Amino acid sequence: MDWKQTAFLVTGGSGFLGSYVVDVLRARGAQNVAIPGSSDFDLTDMNDVRSMLEDTRPEVVIHLAARAGGIGANRQKPAEFFYANLMMGVQVMHESWKAGVKKFVAIGTVCSYPKFASVPFREDEIWSGYPEETNAPYGLAKKMMIVQAQAYRQQYGFNAINLLPVNLYGPRDHFDLETSHVIPALIRKCIQAKQVGASEIVLWGDGSPTREFLFAEDAAEGIVLATEKYEEDQPVNLGSGQEISIRDLVVTIAGMVGFSGSIVWDASKPNGQPRRSLDITRAREKFGFQAATSLSQGLRLTIDWYLRESAAGKVA
To answer: Given 20, 113, 130, 138, which residue is catalytic?
Structure first.
């Protein structure tokens, strides 16, 4: 790939993961990277999608834009999550094909996997059952990009690939307790509890589910490697290969921030998917991706960033 000459379009490029993808592209030497904002184009509107592509004329599209959140947000707005993600994916890919884009990189989600998929999740088993109910609308909407990419490759020869990242975390994430994912939510809860001298924090579920987490900077590296090297129709997992229970994760974060109070589990709230851990063989074999950041390293970097930003009044 000629990094200097290739025109890239990164939807969601100003967001959490997108900002890291843009950093990696520029570190490779990319000079033409379009980063349209949601205030510029509504990607659920076909006319706006067409205008975006006409204005930027990309050769490579990396589609990261998504409407996402934690369990609470998914339960409150399942229809919005389904509609927004389905329409964005379908329209951005379709119009990219029509515009003559040379490569389309669709970023899916681990939430597309069946609720009781065998662990570690293998890409070939993604159709073996229905996703976990609390985030099924989101997961299924993103999953349709796999179908679309394969259909467009078969009929039109369109070079579209699909990547399935596991739960992401890192600096630059958002820490809103209503919409954030598990790691930023836990970091904020533990830090705030310590600051006010709270004797306990209350968390959803019972702490038994397991999760795998991927540092966002590592995820961006994997996405750019796939953009450069992967040309096949089968989806590819992006993960770290490290599984941890939510209970152990909370203990780890509490220890790192110095919160010594009790952890109370509200079992009336949903746990979400029982286990999440990915088979990451395909990414390593197909384009040489392997996560470089351990969970402990990533958590320390994320906590330190949040403390600095919070002290500066840049995050709540």
So the answer is: 138
